[in-house]
Amino acid sequence: MKLRIHKQELSKHISIVQKAISGRTPMPILEGILVECFNNQIKLTGSDGEISIETYVDAFIEEEGSVVIGSRIFGDIIRKLPNAMVSIDVEGTNIKITCEQSEFNILGQNTKEYPNLPVVEEINSITIPGEKLKEGIKSTEFAVSLDEIRPALTGVLMDIHKESISFVALDGYRMSLKIEDVKNNFEREAIVPSRSCNELIKIMDEDLEEVTLIFSNNHISVNLGNTIFYTKLINGEFFAYEGLVRREHSKTVKVNRMDFLNSLERASLLAKEERANLVKLDIRNGEVLIESNSDIGNVHELVPCEKDGEDLKIAFNSKYLIEGIRTIPTSEIILQFTDAINPCIIQPPEREDYIYLVLPVRLAN
Fold this sequence. Notes:
365 residues; alpha+beta; 9-stranded antiparallel β-sheet; 8-stranded antiparallel β-sheet; 26 strands; 18% helix
């Protein structure tokens, strides 16, 4: 196998497939990258058995062939080479990498031991704008459960309807729901593991116009053009989340998002000293008083607000409030309450496409 390619192009595509490689695989060969050359293209493949990525990049191919190269050393070598053309010459499993005055000789592995990628037999497929897919994942993934006892909640639910896709994550303390308008010809649910969601959005280009999702019973493949991303789906039944969204409320508060967020973050500096990350909100007289106490002191923050309804004292885990509010892009946010023991629903004003629900912490009278 002989090829020539510019260092920057090769390094970019190595970084893409490395997102699928972890140190937890039981098969040592999966610690490497499968490199295949044909038709003036290099195909790079990385996998850990749960996530698999294959990506294609144009190159000058003098001799077709394939080899498995250790992911870490291959990536480190290419990244450190001069910004110039790289030549790779493979004889058996002996690999020579040259670039200007640099020459590396390393050992690879035979490709026969590398397992096949999952075959995703298409049951359903959908094409979605790249920005909508990325926004749906970013707005929800942070709220997945870390409790492996409830595996279905450790992923993001894609709830696909004829006119929309709902991205949902919840962990028993809060729920994040993002709805994207997308026309589909089928309805189904698919739970995508949290790590898969994270790695997918890392390799999506900012200007990616459309993405094709192909669903089988147990896998999903995501076609990003020159790159295809595969992941296992989580089996199990997701929580009946729609029943959590309360449509009626007795108290509504509108605040400047950044003023409220900055005050919460300052209050959380002391809240973190206690395990519960507790902050108390006292909503009255056109302002929200945010308080936090710990053994080393206390903090008081005042944020102006527009209030509709009675005064309210309520407490939250500051981490849950902050993480949800950070994902909202609008300058103002709406907080909706019924009382001090039922969930607070946070939304952008006059928009129904994002809902963040967080449970309060009960306080002793």
